[in-house]
Automatic annotation (TrEMBL), chains A, B, C, D, E, F, G:
<dbReference type="InterPro" id="IPR011032">
    <property type="entry name" value="GroES-like_sf"/>
</dbReference>
<dbReference type="InterPro" id="IPR020818">
    <property type="entry name" value="Chaperonin_GroES"/>
</dbReference>
<dbReference type="GO" id="GO:0005524">
    <property type="term" value="F:ATP binding"/>
</dbReference>
<comment type="similarity">
    <text>Belongs to the GroES chaperonin family.</text>
</comment>
<dbReference type="Pfam" id="PF00166">
    <property type="entry name" value="Cpn10"/>
</dbReference>
<dbReference type="InterPro" id="IPR018369">
    <property type="entry name" value="Chaprnonin_Cpn10_CS"/>
</dbReference>
<dbReference type="GO" id="GO:0005737">
    <property type="term" value="C:cytoplasm"/>
</dbReference>
<protein>
    <recommendedName>
        <fullName>Co-chaperonin GroES</fullName>
    </recommendedName>
</protein>
<dbReference type="GO" id="GO:0044183">
    <property type="term" value="F:protein folding chaperone"/>
</dbReference>
<dbReference type="GO" id="GO:0051087">
    <property type="term" value="F:protein-folding chaperone binding"/>
</dbReference>
<comment type="subunit">
    <text>Heptamer of 7 subunits arranged in a ring. Interacts with the chaperonin GroEL.</text>
</comment>
<dbReference type="InterPro" id="IPR037124">
    <property type="entry name" value="Chaperonin_GroES_sf"/>
</dbReference>
<dbReference type="GO" id="GO:0051082">
    <property type="term" value="F:unfolded protein binding"/>
</dbReference>
<comment type="function">
    <text>Together with the chaperonin GroEL, plays an essential role in assisting protein folding. The GroEL-GroES system forms a nano-cage that allows encapsulation of the non-native substrate proteins and provides a physical environment optimized to promote and accelerate protein folding. GroES binds to the apical surface of the GroEL ring, thereby capping the opening of the GroEL channel.</text>
</comment>
<keyword id="KW-0143">Chaperone</keyword>
<keyword id="KW-0963">Cytoplasm</keyword>
<dbReference type="GO" id="GO:0046872">
    <property type="term" value="F:metal ion binding"/>
</dbReference>
Length: 94, 94, 94, 94, 94, 94, 94
């Protein structure tokens, strides 16, 4: 298990299937770099200048969209993860 | 649905029709890059150093003008959105 | 109408007529890039780290001088405006 | 009249006459870029993160020395001024 | 012994063995630059603007993952260590 | 007289004589750029975010060492001075 | 004597002898740039935004390791010193 520090979040990448206008499903490799992930671990949050910790706005299990080219790629027990700062996450898919 | 984080705002782009001096309507493609959008989701706001959250100054439904080349383009359920930081929004069209 | 966000200010450009030493009036095009404007809308002000908002130091109707090349050009209802940050405004013409 | 914003200061440039070792007076054009000015208007001061305003350390009438290449050149009613940030002023000539 | 300052952490590098899909063990040299370490010493933590010290989130003995190319390499008593800032550590391996 | 602003300090450069190992005195021109000065005027100090002013750590008459290439050169009443920020001063020669 | 300002620390460089695997002692010149020093003077510490001073974490006599290429080289009374910011010191050798 990976326990991220501060406002970091560990995610698994999600290959988003996408249909063309004519209904053909494009596999992940024929698309742009994926920007979707599923949260698998969440840090304790960043510490403000007044000493208070701010809880991260995402929770384990959330599907999120993140900024391209952000984060640190990590291999752990044969699987690949991406560790993001909270500020790299733009939205939760609700 | 997309739920933006922090001071982020999700918008749909708005193609602004524009008439030339002689009254001819120019479609979007003959114009500059659009800078108008309609707000579809608003984050909880950024956290100040005193722990307080500052509500974002725009609301769902607002038509806004944003800085060129800002934001993260996101495809979701077949539609295209732009996720902006509040600081990328320059004005609300009232 | 445009409602600027934060410490932003919407201005109309002012073409400043200028006379040469010999009294000949130079129209705007024969001069340097204008740096004068008239304030048409003012934001609520920026938020300090203590949560307080600081009122912008200019008011609607003020004629101001701003730093060259600053601001975002915006077309709205056929007219052109410039949206500035308060920090781009150097002085009010009193 | 020009009313500078925040911690800005409006100055008139002062051509400093300078004598060579042999006593010859060099006019301004034969010298380096002037760095001296006389204060003609002073802003209300910058706002700290606690909401307090800090009065600018110079007053109208002070002769000051400023950092080369700083400030915004402004023409107003036929005269030329320089608008400086307080931080561009290095010393008052007492 | 090394006593790191502020939010710094001293680690020993850990050569992570990794098996290929076919089960062959690749020694460290055939892999990417290692990003794993074991914490051997922890600083007192960084000081906030309110004077409070924030304890570092890792403890001696923790196995951690850090950002590539971060830290200062230090040789001490024949052994090699890496001194990291807490912000260079992305996760604890739990 | 020059009255420096904020945390600025006015110094006169000091040509440090230096002897070679064999006892020959090298005049200033045969050496590196001098980094020594004598304090002739001290500003009121910088203002913290809580509105408090922090007194500068040097006093008039102190001999100090400063970082190379820092400060603003100023000519005043025929003499040359250097105006430094307090942060450019590394040590007092006691 | 040198009295460093703020969070600065004056050190003497320490030439670290190092043995190769076969036991041969390499003199300093055959090695990398030294990164070890002995603290000879310590400043009063940096001032926080709340006006409080934070004592430097090292004391006179401590042997320390610092980041390569940091600090200001200073010659004083025939000896050479290095003036570091506290943040350039990575660890105390205990």
């Amino acid at each position: 298990m990976l326990k991220p520090l501060g406002d970091r979040v560990v995610i698994e990448l999600v290959e988003s299937e996408e249909k063309t206008a004519s209904g053909i499903v494009l596999p992940g490799t024929a698309q742009e770099k994926p920007q979707e992930g599923k949260v698998v671990a969440v840090g304790a949050g960043r510490v403000l200048d007044n000493g208070e910790r701010v809880a991260v706005e995402v929770s384990v299990g959330d599907r999120i969209i993140f900024s391209k080219y952000s984060g640190t790629e990590v291999k752990h027990e044969g699987a690949e993860f991406l560790v993001l700062r909270e500020s790299d996450i733009v939205a939760i898919i609700g």
